[in-house]
Structures are given as structure tokens and as C-alpha cells.
Design brief:
Strand content of chain B: under 5%
Structural class of chain B: mainly alpha
Number of strands of chain B: 2
Oligomer: heterodimer
Largest sheet of chain A: none
Radius of gyration of chain B: 28 Å
Helix content of chain A: over 70%
Radius of gyration of chain A: 25 Å
Strand content of chain A: under 5%
Distance between the termini of chain A: 54 Å
Chain lengths: 286, 332
Amino acid sequence: MIKPAMNPVYRRRLWIHRVGIALSFFAMAIGLFFLMWILLTLIVKGVGGIDLAIFTQSTPAPGSEGGGLMNAIIGSLLMVGAAVFISTPIGILAGIYLAEYGEVSWFAQITRFVTDIMLSAPSIVIGLFIYAIYVANVHHFSGWAGSFAMSLIAIPVVVRTTDNMLNLVPTSLREAAFALGAPRWKVATSVRLRAVKAGIVTGVLLSIARISGETAPLLFTALNNQFYSANMNAPMANLPVVIYQFAMSPYDNWRTLAWGGALLVTFSVLGLNILSRTLFHQKIQH
Amino acid sequence: MNALSDRVSHDGHIFSNALKATMRKQRLQDFFFHKLTFFFALSVLLVLMGIVASLMIGAWPALHEFGLPFVTSIEWDPVNDKYGALIAIFGTLVTSFIALLIAFPVSFGIALFLTEICPAWLKRPLGTAVELLAGVPSIIYGMWGMFIFAPIFAEYIQPALANTLGELPVIGELFKGPMMGIGMLTAGLILAIMIIPFIASVMRDVFETVPQVLKESAYALGCTKWEVVRNIVLPYTRIGVVGAVMLGLGRALGETMAITFVIGNAHTLSWSLFAAGNSIASTLANEFAEADSVLHVSSLYALGLILFVITFIVLTAAKLMLMGMARKEGKK
């Protein structure tokens, strides 16, 4: 019997296999390497900037010492909150339409197609759109404009997740509800939607994570504000734009604050992602 | 008497008056709910059309003034009010192309690793790690790129490239010039790191659609793992792989913050990859808030329109390919 290892053809095949697998390992290592590098940089550079002042003081004027990011944090929270308030009902209801009424109709297919494209659309163009239809007409930047831009980015995420989740509910559950005489809207909400509550919440959390990190759409909608202001109808300070401005500046304390803010944003986003993932898996386990 | 007339309607039907009233109310509720959800679903389409329409309206003055040569002109002169889109388009395409060139093999390797090679207990954590990388906000990539990567790039990698590839006859032109660390090549690299997790997760979903039976039959015939990948997985998922790459391309084209930090923001066209340049998104980010002349603003709208159209076409093609994959899977 010929031992396989002595066969030259087999040896060649085995070597090609080994090289291929090694390259694959290498690719994975590269990916992990950059992830670790970036996160480590963030932690090392950002931790130096995080102290209590970041949460209690507003952004410093150019050249002045100290300062914090309070107005930016509050501004971001307000705008993201408003965006979630707008986008969640619209997204869920549109998702319900697609899953319950549209199903496989051509209208629903086109809407799903367009939603998926909007998911990956350049966010700066969304900002441009809101500028064109809102900011240019009211002649001032505002927190509301920033919220509108963010909700346009969040809606496709919520629609898609809701649609996918609702389609996971077994048909027998729907049919049982209909058999009991429930009107269609009750079947869609009290039965189907409630069955995948956790999945819907996951979708909303993912949309929040997505919009919290977006800078481009805020550049010409909410602009920025050096001082603390809770007026949504005026330019509003927000973390991403503050980070952008401060990072490119020549002032040391500005750059430290930028790194601190970057750390805050990244870990909030990552935290939301992990939270939604564990929530989802927990519910699936049940 | 009253209780009886509640139960039996006047024409003797089995439906009582109370029941008829309830059903009428429910029909009304259903009607409104249907219209409400339909309206919101329609609004997604309306937003898309609105974006195209508003961009076209905004871009009209510039397009009317410069006409089609706007797309091929390399002028960008706010002082004399003359604009052309070629530099921005060139920057967008070149950085995206570099990013794809690097991201494709790496994400392919990662997707392969996660689906074929990874032991089961490692799959969840590593998969999560890759997707976390996808969730990091793009501004972080820009900052990391400018403060950490660019100096290292300027000090070690750019000289190395200039000394090796820069000496070759034709492609040497790509690697000449001042080594500032920022520029088109850096922007392309940062963009690559950004889209790798995205493409990898789409590719992983695509690879997982290959029926287990096919792979097991190949193993039974004595194929090595690599041969299974090359001869079974790849041909089966060819369309999906291309779709995943194009999805990544669509993302890369529209990326703003990761590039704006490191592309150098110079309105110049140069063969060297070390040179600074500009992309459509970074031009918009830098100049839109401060542009004042009508033509300047309108030219920026025109750039936005061009970017949106290119991205829309790429994403549509990607979507169609991935839908083809799903059809093969028997899903839709």
C-alpha cells in the first residue's frame, strides 16, 4: 500500500492546503490586530482625558485651559433622543406594513430594496438633503435639523429589523389569532409584534448605536455650539462634531478632550451593540 | 326585553346588534391602521425621491453654468467661481479602489476562517469581535489614522515603498513624492480597515449558505479543506462574493470622516499615491458650511448628487447580486 505522505501529488495538494489555511489565519490575525490596536489607542489616549470635569464643564474657548464636554454630551443625548422618538414609531409601523400587509407584493419588494439601499447611503448626502429642505428654508441651523437627519439614518435600520423579526413569527400563531376573531391590526400588534418584542428592541438599540457615532450628517444641520444650550431650535453642541473640530486643532487641551470624547462615544456604541446582542440571544434561548 | 333585542337583530340574523357594532368599529380600525402603516412604508420611497429631487434642484445652477464639462474639469477656484468635479471624483474612486484591493483578500480570509476553519467554541467570540469592529464610529478611524497611523506610515512604510516599488518603471510613478504620511494611499488604507469587517460579515453569511451535503461529499472524496473551498464553496457563492464586495464599495464611496482626516484636502490631481487629494465626501465636509457664492454651494450640491448616483448604482447592483444568491438558496 502506498503511504499517502509519499505520494508527490498528495504532498503538493497538502502544501497548497496548508498555505491557504495559513493565509486565512493571517487574514484573521490582521483583522484582530487592527481592532486591538485601535481600541488600545483609544483607551490609552482617551483615559487621560476623562475626568469629572468632562461631565460638568462646557467646551473651552480656543486657548483657554481645562473645560469639559458637558454641553456636547447633553446635546448629543437630546438629539439622539429626539431622533429615536421620531424614527422608532415610523420604522416599526413601516416594518409592520411590510410584514403584515405588503408581504411579497411588488410595492413591498421595492420598499425593502430601497430601505436596504438607504441603509448604506452616504450619510453626508442625508445631511445635505436635510439642509436643502429644512435648514435653508428656516435660515438657521438647529438641533431639530440634526435629529431629522439622524432619524433618516435610523429609520431604515428599524424597518429592516422589524420586518425580519415579524417574519420569524410562525404562521400558526397568526392564524390562531385570526381564528379567535381578532381584527387584523390587533393580530399585527398584540400578537405578532409582542412575540418578537426583544428583537424589535434590538433593532432600536442598533439604530441608536448607528446614529450616535455619525458625524457627517450633523456637520451642516446642527452645526455646533460652544456653550451649553438646551434649545433644540438653535445650533446644538454634539459630541461627534466637537471631536472632529477639537482633534484637528492645535490646542493640547482640545485634543485631549477630543480623545476623551472619542472614548466615550466608542464605548457607548460598543456597549449598545453588545447589549442588543446579549438581549437578542437571551430571548432566542427562551 | 332590552337584553333580548341586544342579542337578536331585527332581521333575525345570527349577528346581534352589539356584535355588528363591534365588527364595524374593528373594520374602521383596520382601515386606519392599514392606511397609517402604508403611509409610513411609502415615506421611505418618498424620502429617496426627495433626496434625488432636492439634490438636483440644488445642483441646477452649477450644472446649467458649467454643463457636462463640470464632470471632467479639474478647476476648483472659489475666488474666481470656477468649479469642476474631476478631482473629487478621482479621489473618491482611487481611495475606494485601494480600499477594496486590500479589503477583499483580508475579508475573504476572515470569512473563510470563521466559517470553515474556526473551532466551534471560538466562532461566537471571534464573530462578535469582527462585528464590533464594524460598529466603531468612522471618526475614530480618522483620528487613529491621523495621529497614530500616519506618522508610522511616513517614517517606515512610505520610504520602504518608495525604495522598492518606487524604482519600478511604470508603477514607480505611484510611489514618488513627499512622504507626509497623509494622502490618498493612507486614506485608502484606513478605508480598507474600515470596510473589512463589513465585507467579512456579509461574506460569512454568503459562505454559510453552501449546503453542508455538498461540502461533506467533497470531503468524502478525499478533498483537502482548501480544495473544498476552492472547488465547492467559491463557485457556489461567486455571485454573493461579488455582491458583498460591491456592498463594501458602496460604503467606501460614501465614507466621510475616516477619509477627511487623512486625505490632505488638497485640490490637486497627481499620479502619486503619496500626494494629498480630495474626495467628494471630504470636499463637502470641509467646504459646505462656509461656502457662500451661489455657484460654490451649487457645485457642492452637484458633487453630492454625483456621489449619490454612483453609490445608488453600486448598491443596486450589489443588492441584485445578493438577491440572486438568496434565490439560489431557495429563500425567495
